[in-house]
Amino acid sequence: MSDRTASPSNLPRPTDPITLAQGLIACPSVTPEEGGALTLLEAVLQPLGFATHRVRFSDKDTPDVDNLVATIGSGGPHLMLAGHTDVVPPGAGSLWTRPPFSGDLDGPYLYGRGAVDMKGGVAAFVAAVARLRAEGWPETGTVTLLLTGDEEGPSINGTEKLLAWCEARGMTFDAALVGEPTNVAVLGDMAKVGRRGSLSGTLRVEGRQGHAAYPHRALNPMPAVTAIAEALQGTPLDEGSEAFQPTSLQVVAIDTGNPAFNVIPAAAEIRFNVRFSDRWTSATLKEELLRRAEAVRPEGVTVSVVWEKASESFLTRDAALAARLTDAVRAVTGREPELSTAGGTSDARYIQAYCPVIEFGLVGDTMHQIDERVPVDDLEALTEIYRLFIAATLSDAEAAADA
Description:
Elements lengths: L16 H9 L11 H9 L5 E9 L2 E13 L3 E7 L20 E2 L2 E3 L7 H17 L5 E8 L10 H10 L6 E4 L11 E3 L1 E2 L1 E10 L3 E2 L10 H13 L13 E8 L7 E2 L2 E10 L5 H15 L5 E6 L6 E2 L3 H15 L4 E3 L7 H4 L5 E3 L13 E3 H19 L2 H6 L1
Parallel strand pairs: 3-6, 3-7, 7-18, 8-17
Antiparallel strand pairs: 1-2, 2-6, 4-5, 5-19, 9-16, 10-14, 10-15, 11-13, 12-14
């Protein structure tokens, strides 16, 4: 569905997560393209009473990105529901059994790019609020949908800037729920209460170029590269902590840019990523990795590192927030979710600086895959979990008093 078709006559029913998800999947919003997804959501949300704001951000050397802020209700508590409508590319459409932007229903499954990550979650957000509104909105309480089109991309013109935009306009939040896929095997088995930090770097080892037949006239950087790679990942950085898995460093590439067999390269690069526990900050981790590299650096070669933007580990220590979500999950699925910090990063890393945040969404087994799909029963169950959670949060007297 594109912005040309988002008219009242063909809008999905706001209380139905299945038709909402189908409409969103039909929007080809491959990051950074809006693809009609936010336009569709505006058309659905405005008749429900949401005040909507389309916000576009720009930055040097990155694409412009559209984002959406939609708010309903008044007073506290103020709950943020955060997610994204951009999706990763589908790959070759010929490999899909159904067109990736068709939103086809086949038996118990809804197919399409974004079905799991995370247009299904966004549809469940909207349907949950629509159902709650139909039941009668509480006397006080506010819900804001914070939706970005830059989660799957460089994440420069998305959630981080959108949060600052909200703060500049006096918007404050008491809690946030991120709808990323969190469950491993079945709906209800895992929620995220934190995330490991992430640090990436390109380490450059410089020697001296020369002829491979005359190695004494050159300084080959490759022995240093292999020694440094082993030093970086050979000894565990830590054993984890009570809330976090052990820190993991993975070398993802080693490159000299040298196509010749008879040339000793002048330099080589090691690219790596670290997912780190709360035993480290990005600053202390950088110091340790440089120390390890210097400890095995042969005389004569030089070592330098270009660091990418890092995200710190965080842990949400809000027992009431976790309890409300756990109660909602248990009521719908009969399961008690594990409160975990496993996995990669998400936009919760930005939100945690503004308010307590928890994450819960669909089962992530097919996200980013060919034939991405979601059980329609899971979409319905997720909507009911969100409805119960939102209702419990808005009726929380302590949160309202703090707002």
